[in-house]
Amino acid sequence: QLPVKVRDLEKGLDGSQMVVINKGDALWRIAYRRFGEGVRYVDIVRRNAAAIDDPDLIYPNQIFALPKE
């Protein structure tokens, strides 16, 4: 069961792919798997600036929109 809020889903209205954070995930690894470059985690942080205060502190069940290639 995933607690989803409307504001989480609104991020994807432009067709952006969404990712649900699981325990042990890191933005660097997500960026590496998605874009082939871990340093592109900064693009994920920019895209979700309102939800990410500290890129080192993300939590399970958070939902982030991934930037388009």
Total number of helices: 3
SSE series: HEHHE
Low-confidence stretches are none
Rg is 11 Å
Q: Please count the beta strands (DSSP E, at least 2 residues each).
A: 2
Mean pLDDT value: 90
- Taken from the alpha-carbon principal axes, the silhouette is globular
Span between termini: 30 Å
Helix content: 25-40%
Strand order of the largest sheet: 1-2
Strand fraction equals 5-15%
* Main sheet: strands, sense, barrel: 2 strands, antiparallel
Short overview:
The protein is an alpha+beta fold and 69 residues long.
How would you summarize the topology of this molecule?
Blueprint: H1 6-10, E1 18-20, H2 27-35, H3 41-47, E2 63-65
Antiparallel strand pairs: 1-2
How would you describe this structure in keywords?
69 residues; alpha+beta; two-stranded antiparallel ribbon
Structure characterization notes:
Helices cover 30% and strands 9% of the residues. With 69 residues, the protein is an alpha+beta fold. The chain has a two-stranded antiparallel ribbon. Helix 2 (27-35) crosses helix 3 (41-47). The longest helix has 9 residues, at 27-35. The model has no long low-confidence stretch (mean pLDDT 90).
